[in-house]
C-alpha cells in the first residue's frame, strides 16, 4: 500500500479553550524536535466546548467561570491564575481580565476559510492570541475580517464567506466526527488515525507519539 505524501496529525480544539492553546505550544515544541517534521501535516478540527454560549462583551470571564462551574468568584480567579501560570511556562501571555466572552462558531468558520486558503495554522494561532492575549471579540465578523488581512487573506472573499454563513457545515462536520470517534474534551490529537493524545500533554509525550506513529506510517 502506498503511503500518503505526509503523515497527518489532526487536532480538535476550541479557540476559547486555554489548554488547547497551551497544548498547541507543547505540540509545536515536540514537532520542532522531531527530525521528520517536514513529513508531518497538521490539520485543525473544530470543536465547541460551549456551543450555546451567548457572546457578551460586558461579561467577566471569572464571573462566568464561577457560575458555569458552580464555584466562588475567588476560586474561579485562582483557577484562571493557575492556567495563566501554566501558559507563561510555554511562553504565552494570558490576559483573562480582558478576554471577551464569545461564542466560537464564527471563529471556527474563519479557520475553515483560512484552511481553504492554506493559512489554517496561522489562523489558529491568531485566534488564540486574539482571545487570550489581546482581548478581541472572536465572534465579531469585522474583527475576524481584520484578523484575516493580518495573515494575508482577502478581505472581500472572507467577508462574503462570513456574512453568508459559509463553512458552517464544515464546522458541524468536524464536531460530529469528534462525537463519532469518542472525543469528549479538547485538545484532542490524532496521529495517523492510529494513536491519540488527549489534553495539553508534555512535549515529550507528543514527541514519543510522533516518533512511534511515523515509524509505522513509513512502512504502511
Question: What this model shows, in words?
Answer:
This protein is an alpha+beta fold and 220 residues long. The protein has a single domain (9-51, 103-214), classed as Glutaredoxin, CATH 3.40.30.10. 52% of the residues lie in helices and 10% in strands. It is built from nine helices and four strands. The protein has helices at residues 18-33, 61-69, 73-89, 105-116, 120-132, 141-150, 155-163, 168-180, 203-218, and strands at 7-13, 40-46, 188-191, 195-198. Strands 2-1-3-4 form a four-stranded mixed sheet, sandwiched between helices. α1 packs across α9 (203-218), α2 (61-69) crosses α3 (73-89) and α6 runs antiparallel to α7. The longest helix has 17 residues, at 73-89. The mean pLDDT is 96.
Q: Can you identify the CATH superfamily?
A: Glutaredoxin
Specify the CATH class: Alpha Beta
Just name the CATH architecture: 3-Layer(aba) Sandwich
Order of helices and strands: EHEHHHHHHHEEH
* Structure annotation, total helices: 9
Briefly characterize the structure.
The protein has 220 residues and is α+β, with helices and mostly antiparallel strands. The protein contains nine helices and four strands. The chain has a single domain (9-51, 103-214), classed as Glutaredoxin, CATH 3.40.30.10.
Q: Secondary structure elements and their pairing?
A:
Layout lengths: L6 E7 L4 H16 L6 E7 L14 H9 L3 H17 L15 H12 L3 H13 L8 H10 L4 H9 L4 H13 L7 E4 L3 E4 L4 H16 L2
Parallel strand pairs: 1-2
Antiparallel strand pairs: 1-3, 3-4
